[in-house]
Amino acid sequence: MPEDIHRERMDAIKNNTIWGQFVVNSSLRINPRITNSHEEFYELRLPKAKNMSST
């Protein structure tokens, strides 16, 4: 998939899905294992769960 298509896909995911509410940062990196390919990375902010135990 070309880099510009990847970026469009990532923007659509962030802007048009619930996933976008949790994305803090995203990046597209060259995949060193496969020639001419990229990997999408997302840094997420997870909501604090009020009913979960810390133990």
Description:
This protein is an alpha+beta fold and 55 residues long. Helix content is 25%, strand content 27%. It has one helix and two strands; from the N terminus they run αββ. The protein has one helix at 3-16, and strands at 23-30, 38-44. It has a two-stranded antiparallel sheet. β1 and β2 (38-44) form a beta hairpin. The longest helix is centred in the first third of the chain and has 14 residues, at 3-16. It is elongated. It starts with a helix and ends in an 11-residue tail after the last strand.
Brief rundown of the structure:
This protein has one helix at residues 3-16; strands at residues 23-30, 38-44. The protein is α+β, with helices and mostly antiparallel strands and 55 residues long.
Features:
55 residues; alpha+beta; two-stranded antiparallel ribbon; 1 helix; 2 strands
Task: Please give the structural blueprint.
Layout: H1 3-16, E1 23-30, E2 38-44
Antiparallel strand pairs: 1-2
Radius of gyration, in angstroms, nearest whole number: 15 Å
Structural class: alpha+beta
Number of strands: 2
Query: H/E element string?
Result: HEE
Biggest β-sheet: strands ordered side by side in the sheet: 1-2
The whole-number mean of residue pLDDT values reads 86
Q: What is the rounded distance between the termini?
A: 44 Å
Largest sheet: 2 strands, antiparallel
Report the oligomer. Answer: single chain
Q: What is the overall shape?
A: elongated
